[in-house]
Amino acid sequence: MAEAKRVDTMRISLREKLAYSLGDIASNVVWSAAGGFLTYYYTNVAGIAAAAAGVIMLSSRLLDGVSDVAMGGVIDKTKSRFGKARPWLLWMCGPFALASFLLFAVPRDWDDTAKIIYAFITYNFMSTVVYTAINLPYGVMNAMMTDNQKDRTSLNIFRMLGAMTMAVCANLLVIPLVKLFGGGSETNPTGWTMTFSMLGIIAMCLFILCFLGTKERIRTEEAKDKEHTSLIKAVSLLFRNKFWVILLITGVIAQMGVGTMGVNPYYAQYYLGDVGLAGLMSMFIMVPLVIGLAISGPLIEKFGKRNCILFGVFFGLPGYILPLFNPYSFVFIAIGGVFRGLGMGPAVACGFAMLADVIDYHDWKFGARTEGVVYSAASFGNKVGMGLGAAALGVGLSLGRFDGAAGASQPGSAMAAILIVYAILPLVLQIIGIVLYSQYTLDKIYPQIVAELAERKKQSV
Q: What pTM was estimated for this model as a whole?
């Protein structure tokens, strides 16, 4: 069993919170842009069938299950003078830049089978290997930088403010950058490769700055007279932790919604008549989301994480219903996006802070503090959700007989599939989320948990 030692427990400074946020800015400068445009790139630029693109993304999530849990165990056993999570930012920032380039460099002159194999390998290199090895330790840092619940929430808000701000910028800039580097065409493969090569280099620099500006304060050491919790036992204990299970399932659902945002370029092109509007569609969600994040802190402190999330989910429901009344109206899409974004704010603000709370609950309930495994398993759930969302898009387009080479003349079944993925599927997911979050009651007992953990620490000294 691992016993946590808390050293240098000063409050986290504004400068360090800003430095920490650079890690998620780095991830999203590539990952958010890729999430919004990769399926479109595969089908409309690289010439890969929509169904194949969806299967690539979904099947990769099964491999993620192995890599995430394995990486969690690696983090828990990492020992360095920089800590056990933070050094991974330095070690993996270069491979992250390389993977960004490879992801959008599918050779156009290869045959269909070869292109699918290339896409599968490079997507897994980014998602299963590189993204896991850099983003999972970054998430663990929240629990390692401080044991103060307010600071954990504040760190998460700073993190997600940075992430969502970059998501807005990335989604707005991708098509203009692709046209710039591709001679004015959004379907020029060189433009896509150049754009994501540049974004990968920017991300690498931001990860380095995040590493330099942060510090791990909570160190977990093995008690000499106690047996170390094995990886298998640590994972089995997770499924006895009801609050972790709730966060796992809601994470899958939330990321399914994120995965379906890959439909935006299709919606913009075939319903609104201009693929360039995809960035604006994202902006009308992301800007309100950033505003929702910015105002969430005091509300979370007063009403609790779960209650704020439930309010946000209810508030966001009109955003999924409005487009059904007039799917061709950009005004309806924009207003709906504002509702969606504001409603998502509390959940985004609380997500990783709630995982940190669950780590304390896990320690209190089972006497095992395994930050890496807790985060890795939750990360796997998030990736599965995103994969399911992307697969739903790919499979839905395929069932709707979508043809990327057919231009604007798509069959009615393809148009229906685009609308279902854009509005109806996310609406169903939101309703399921309401049911699940209503069962999360950890906020009520958390002060008791903190007090008892502190008392145990005194008795063990």
A: 0.70
